[in-house]
Amino acid sequence: MSDYLIEANLIGGAWRDATGEKIEVTNPATGAVLGHVPSFGASETEEAITAAADAFPGWAATDLGTRVGHLRRLHQALMDNQEALAALLTAEQGKPLAEARGEIAIGAAYVLWFAEEIRRLKGEIVPAPVNGRRLLVTHHPVGVVAAITPWNFPSSMLARKLGPALAAGCTTVVKPASLTPYSALAWGRLAEEAGFPPGVVNIVTGSAREIGGAIMSDPRVRKVTFTGSTEVGKTLIRQSADTVKKVSMELGGNAPFIVFDDADLDRAVEGAMIAKYRNSGQTCVCANRIYVQSGIHDSFVARLTEATKALKVGDGTEPGVEQGPLVDRSAFDKVTDLVADAVSHGAEVATGGGAHTLGGTWFEPTVLTGITPAMKIAREEIFGPVSAIVRFEDEAEAIEAANDTEFGLAAYAYTQNVARIFRLTETLNYGLIGINEGLITTVEAPFGGLKESGLGKEGGSQGLSDYLDSKYTCIGGL
Ligand code: ADP
């Protein structure tokens, strides 16, 4: 782990130690201080942008084969160091080691995917309306890209942004979440090991407002790619207007998980467990509202409650642990508040409901029934290990309720009725839909939300095009 626990920032190929204030990074499971990273601000961010802008022409003009080679080595470096990187991720974020290993692997897979995708990028020669002309459509890297990432997937969220940016020929300035900076800083070392030239990847830790302000006001930054809360995303979209930056936004969700009477019960329970409790409920695609049709309601609740009680809670480094702590006290307080609000409005606790006996920021894996739309838990992203169950009678009612939110990231449904499956793909107003599957993220498919859940896609071929500008050239007089 120690090789990749780096306390400095990477700016223009130089590792820079803190000169003034520092950010303390702690392990959410033990409270132990892992170390400190610089609390840099606007001036270091400007230096990083300058480094990225200076490196851009050279990197954009680098042979495709060379660029692909760097990306393939980056993928290999991630996989060769999977154990060390996973240990670092668990230490700063709290997720079970098995999940951390999975996050490193999917991050590596994104890098490899974009190394492959860039080789298949095609321009076009489109028919001209008159003879003597050729109309070319070509694709070009957008330029300097700023990537702002969250604490829940500090490594793989960066992979989805750095992968396509570097493949496309862009250079980057990364601002990781202050709770989990080490997983991002490790990417700086990995990029060096893979041979990326200085200035292509720059990483700055510190004040979100100052770093964000410098990024958003600088005309040299041509694109901002952000994963985080809808509130901050909206601020960044507003700030992007002044210099007309491209934006990719992966924002909050409020995923419905609908279980119809005709569902395969075993599969539905298994899917709900993974869609709800992965990363202790701290993912933007976590099942937030679980709608269960009347005929299957009681047996589903009984089975889900049994499986929830059986979850092994503890420090993510212990063998077999499935539920780590919440990332910090404010995350814990928010979940506590949502559960208290639901219970005060009539929700019933089938299991859990409060602080875990382990103390710290562990919250008991919880199942609540009798959830109604009036409760805050039905409207806000829970980001904790709480299953909130709503009973429903018919399909139309479930779809209307599922769509009754400003969010539109992920939705899940369990049914064996093929006609209904096709209806759901049309009526569920969500960017990602899992039918009889609770874990659907994959590098091959576009990940992205509708409505206030975001703009743009990550993964798939769309994930690359978001980092490219197209140009049309008309050649006349032929
Ligand atoms: P979360 O609630 O998941 O922590 P946030 O949206 O608060 O999500 O944070 C996601 C990332 O955005 C973090 O890296 C955070 O430091 C950064 N961030 C927060 N506020 C701003 C801002 N005003 N400008 C730029 N980045 C910000």
From TrEMBL:
InterPro entries: Ald_DH/histidinol_DH (IPR016161), Ald_DH_C (IPR016163), Ald_DH_CS_CYS (IPR016160), Ald_DH_CS_GLU (IPR029510), Ald_DH_N (IPR016162), Aldehyde_DH_dom (IPR015590), Aldehyde_DH_Superfamily (IPR050740)
Domain Aldehyde dehydrogenase, residue spans: 15-471
Recorded GO MF terms: oxidoreductase activity
Bilayer-crossing regions: none
EC number: 1.2.1.-
Pfam family for this entry, one: Aldedh
Keyword Transmembrane helix carried by entry: no
Residues the record marks as active site: 250
Keyword Oxidoreductase in record: yes
Recorded superkingdom: Bacteria
Keyword vocabulary terms for this entry: Oxidoreductase
Family under the similarity heading: Belongs to the aldehyde dehydrogenase family.
Name assigned to this protein: NAD-dependent succinate-semialdehyde dehydrogenase
Organism of origin: Litorisediminicola beolgyonensis
